[in-house]
Amino acid sequence: MSLLSYITLAVVLSCSFAVEENISPRMWPCPDVKAFEPCICTENSAEYIMDADCSGAKTDQDLINAFASDFSFLSFRKLLIDHTLCVDCSLYELSAGMFNGVSFTDIRIVGTSVEIVDEGAFSDSHTSLEAWHMDNNKLTAFPFESITSYTKIISLTMNRNEFPPEYIIQPIESATLRTLNLAYNKELNISESLVQLCSDLRVIHLNSIDLVNIPQYPESPISMFAGLENLTKIYLNNNKIPVLNSDIILATGNSLTELDLSSNSIISDNIDPEFVKGWNPSVGCTLNLTNNQITYLDENTWRPVFTAMHGNEVIDMSLNPLTCGCDIDWIVLNTTMLNLLTTSTTCHTDEAFSIYDVDPNFVNATCTAQNLL
Asked: What is the pLDDT of residues 64-109, one digit of tens each?
């Protein structure tokens, strides 16, 4: 047989072996397409990034098999697992070693049956992870104490999960975390030390967690937010909070721009005039107290709150049963004070009407006469 014949035979055999072994080419830099199934790798060579969409991975084993692939590069930008529309998925645990050394910058796991995240599940992302989003899963526990190991994390979202009431959310420590979202977790059990060691926290969502009282250190007492120099936005709406104690909201760095206490159970007699401190004096700020049980706005309680704010329509008290008697004379007779309230803030008698429609002349004449008695 000639040399050419040997070469031809070698080529034919090589091709036939490739077909038999079902070898498919890699879409470099992604792993082999078949081996990585049911995950899908997409790459953007111009930006030097790879993303992994593992929404098709229905079980723990599916993920383990996919990440057993050979990888030219172990650094991915995004991991997405979205089971919102999956009716037969049974992914229950994210275990240590499952991702086989692969690291991520952005993790988004949504609508799954995941109950447990092992502390080492994403240990290879300790120095890369910036955003961790787990919304609408079945989490009953989470290694919050391990967040300190993620040296670049900026955003942590753990809303709409199933933490049992007896499970105490452990204090979180992070020098980089800026946004924490624990909203929509029923009967969430948090302590006053939850974010004390999150030195750069800017935004915190604790809304819709059935919070009965805002946690407060009992010794002083002092706010759970004390010492957070950069805190700008606090969301405590849709809870069951009845009382606003002194210093319950304290932004030490005078950085606060938004406080949402709407849809709670706050009543007039349970409000301390110094319940909030630390508004940012340089920008417009908003205080949302809509849909509570506030009936009167006596000057001793509310003047300190009003004078700490500036701008127009920055205090919203709509959907409160305000009686609007002489308790509001100091507001309606002072346009600066009145303009702080939203136009939707209403007085409730037989028919609700805007506080802006209260006749200041009537208030002045009537309340002055009462004060002389």
From this structure: 999 999 998 999 999 999 999 999 999 999 999 999 999 999 999 9
Reply yes or no: is the peptide bond before residue 215 cis, omega within 30 of 0.
Answer: no
**Amino acid identity at 189:** N
Tell me, yes or no, whether 203 lies in a domain: yes
Question: Tokens 């004070």 belong to which residue?
Answer: 337
* Residue of 61, 109, 102, 66 lying closest to 86 (CA atoms): 109
For the chain, how many structural domains are there in total?
1
Dihedral, CA of residue 157, residue 160, residue 166 and residue 169, to nearest 10: 10
Inside any domain, residue 53: no
Full-model pTM: 0.89
Whether 86 is in a domain gets the answer no
Contact (CB, 8 A) for 150 and 177:
no
Give dist(CA 196, CA 177) in Å, integer: 12
Q: Mind listing the pLDDT tens digit for each residue in 248-261? A: 999 989 999 999 99
CATH of the domain at 333: 3.80.10.10
**Is residue 56 a part of any domain in this protein?**
no
Write phi, then psi, for 101 (nearest 5 degrees).
Answer: 85, -5
| Cβ density class 276-289: b for 16+ within 10 Å, e for less | bbbbeeeeebbbbb
Sign for the pseudo-dihedral over CA of 90, 93, 94, 95:
negative
Predicted confidence (pLDDT) per residue in 120-166, tens digit: 999 999 999 999 999 999 999 999 999 999 999 999 999 999 999 99
Q: Which domain, by its residues, includes 344? A: 110-372
**8 Å CB contact between 262 and 292:** yes
